[in-house]
Amino acid sequence: MSRDYVTDVSSRVSRDAYRIRLARLDEIDAYTVSAWADVERRALEANAYLSPHFIIPALHHLDAEISPLIVLIERAHGGSCELAGVGAFVVRPPSLRFPLPHLSAYRSPHSYLTGLLVDREHAEPAMQAFFEFIGKNGSGWHGIEFTWRSGDGPSSQLLEAVASERRVVWHEQSRSQRAILLPAKCGEDAITRQLSGSRLKELRRCKRRLGEQGDVTWKMLSGESASSFVVERFLELEHSGWKGKTGTSLRSDAVHETFFREMIEGFRTAGGVFFTELSVGDLVVASTCNLVSGGAGFAFKIGWHPGYARVSPGVLNELELIRHVPELCGELAFLDSGADDGSFIDKLWEDRRDLVTGVFAASPAGRLAASSMQQLRRA
Predict the structure, then answer these.
(1) DSSP β-bridge partners for residue 239
(2) Which of 273, 276, 274 is nearest to 284 (CA)?
């Protein structure tokens, strides 16, 4: 059975009452999934990795052994109840990062961003209810750990402000930057602005050498065009390179491939996936898979033909995206690369976003423990 925690924050930020409901995965019915997807579309800050189309397949296939808590923040209004926020968390025992029992934001092996998904129209009271729940539920959780949380977006700013107001202290453990692409700043000028003359000359030479073997074409595929054939080509390319050799490709493990197919179908049905393909004649030599959520894009995985490695097909594919993204994806606020700091994409995508990892210490003991651990790390 799900557990309900009723929290009324009407005296501070809203005339409505907000209820926190904890649910197991098997209690998430079709109605809740639909409401969750609506929150995703109206999110204060986009995050494809908090979409029901991502979280549910990941929990079913990749982390079936854990018992996650799906935190549903519900708004009671005029006799009705609607979803205002969603989070997925795992109960963790004491660890070296936080030496007391705590919640940790769920992160699958293929999740590149965590956080809390909240409706932008009800973001502040929803976050107020969330932190009040954490502070008063009597569960013994002393903190909330986030890995790779947005560190500079509107959700991050509000989350930390509300936490501070509730005397929940954020203890940052690490900060990094991730490359993002802003469609409004892209096009041919962005390529010449980002790359040196010698690098541009080299890549043009690669494209000419590729063209000696056939016509070089590039396309973006979404909606019905993102068919099962496109998915199959992508999986084959991603597996054929170094990821396949090291056993880290999606196809290396049937469970991960099943997750990917189910996740992509969910996003495709919702109109939230696109692939890019670079081809020589009829042969696709590079492919990328990208997710769309809440008005932003998220680069998920890439693959290229190892037989064409000398002409950098993956880089050429990315250059075409930069060249054409204003006309094809101009409505997106940004594309998150999902890449680690120092990735090859850093040399192609010029803008950055901050990511933070740390703990919100929610109890007096939690605040003392987090502060002590931070001092130890500094020492």
Answers:
(1) none
(2) 276
Contacts of 93 (CB under 8 A, 6+ apart): 101
Token pair 């995985």 in the structure block, residue: 301
Average pLDDT over residues 163-177: 94
Alpha carbons 294 and 123: distance in angstroms, whole number: 15
**Tokens encoding 50:** 């908090």
Q: For residue 22, how many C-alpha atoms fall within 13 Å in the half-sphere facing its CB?
A: 15
CA distance 56 to 247: 24
- Here the tokens at position 101 are 């029992």
**Distance of alpha carbon 96 from its chain centroid, rounded?**
25
Specify which residues 283 forms β-bridges with. Answer: 280
DSSP string, 123-192: HHHHHHHHHHHHHHS-S---EEEEEEEESSSHHHHHHHHHHHHTTPEEEEEEEEEEEEE-GGG-SHHHHH
- Residue corresponding to tokens 């130890």: 376
Distance CA 285, CA 312 (A): 10
| Per-residue pLDDT tens digits for 111-158 | 999 999 999 999 999 999 999 998 875 668 999 999 999 999 999 999
